[in-house]
């Protein structure tokens, strides 16, 4: 076994499925190398942009034909993960598929059949660790997704590992988490000690484990508001406009939440000419738009279990002196996408943001279109984005300040009457003592996206660490008072021996090649000498092949599109290095196995929206991904430059009942009729079919295959 442990998780949304691969140090190795500070920290997870891949459509589209979901959808994602995880460690690498939207809307019988087929296919066609279908393949409810997001945010911000550096007062050192997508919105936070005691039965108990095996526990409240995502809020808004018109025949409706002069259908399609159907005509009156958004919060709904925030839904009282929130997905997109370039040097506060949106929405639609075409707001802003931003901004402001109650910095006091000292907060930010604003938008921290999938894998990695006590409690989460099932992280913390990790040299070679290409000729020559030395060390043919693949893939990525490819001659020719004499097989190796798409995101991934979660499914179809966003894209509402960072797609959370809690209730799956298709690489390539998985553990299991004869 190598020094790294790996994990694979598939985020199965309604518009597509995205695979994430994470790695972290073997717990034994981590403990061996850790100093006193790191012994009391959570495992450090790593990932790279090329470790992620998204394909469309979502698995829910296979509800009527579950047998097709494996070969027609999942296999491509499995292949991608198998290209990354070292072959020797696949059997010890867990794989999870968690559906957040789409699948939840299927009939229960179709949902169960689809999940059973997914698990059966993964178990039969990969060697990834998948011992428990109920735990590894499931539909997670929105509150669980919110909890994972809360873990990811605090993990990246440092609230767990460095509590002293993130003291918010009253012994509080964690951050609240807000997520908004197209269908729903989530909130997750740890209430202050008074509220935690008062509402103990409403909290989830979260237990993790540090490198030295000690338990780390938190009591977290999390809930979801279905229908409060930007898309469904917009639908409810249009329905309210129609209800107020009292005109049954087709007509025009004035819409203050659309830019001036913009005409659309009720579903948002732009109308250029006269339409026989009812149309919306933008007036660009943002103040009026805000007033019309307020009733959608449903603040007047009966509250059966006070206190409540939105829609009569219970939420413990929020102490904004210690509960400081970060917002992802639409909280980030709506405050950045249109305004990040035109207002690059502006700092954020509620008054400034509202004025910018108001000025934008009052512009004529023809002028906005011209500015979009001219790239005034960057390549990521298209006409659809510009069309939607007025309503989205009004909805975000309403939810944040009128719904959740987050103070408007500089003009409002907190709920307990204590005002905010802006000068003091700015000074605190400059000393890096944590984020003390009541709310800030965030997208990437330390070059890693705040994704709920990260939170899930952090929990798993923490569960792999052996407990310091002989009868330690399990890692996972469940009801705070124990009145329900406790969902364990599913980790296996049996000690794993530390040995050579040959495959890690592939990553080393790639990193070295990338650095060498960015440097001068002397640096490149030094790189070449280093590679020659590595080839001397790895004299075994299979080891040289792995290193060759990493180098060759990196050089292919660096070659400009359309530039001629070398004919396989020279030092790095596989014929000379690996003893190959067959010209045909050489082509299979280069053209079939080592394409650049195997090592980085496909083109579609860079333009997908909802890349990290699925509660915003449908709200941002066809948008760019946020993988190029620079380090530490965190917005400080009172200090620093608010609009100096590039935007990124972080999808939001979705809600509903699911199969998130493991109770062992799922029946054994019927795997009859499933055919494992194994074909030789030569047959696949000659047929022009899909690429075979060179590193797959199932390779060479077909009775039709025979090993290549070495010459």
TrEMBL record:
Residues 603-625, 687-711 are annotated as: Disordered. Pfam families: GDA1_CD39. It comes from the Eukaryota. InterPro entries: GDA1_CD39_NTPase. The chain crosses the membrane at residues 521-538. GO terms for biological process: CTP metabolic process; UDP catabolic process. Signal peptide: none annotated. ATP binds at residues 182-186. Keywords: ATP-binding, Hydrolase, Membrane, Nucleotide-binding, Transmembrane, Transmembrane helix. This is Nucleoside diphosphatase. GO terms for cellular component: Golgi apparatus; membrane. The active site is at residue 145. Gene3D superfamilies: 3.30.420.40, Exopolyphosphatase. Domain 2. Belongs to the GDA1/CD39 NTPase family. GO terms for molecular function: ATP binding; GDP phosphatase activity; ribonucleoside triphosphate phosphatase activity; UDP phosphatase activity.
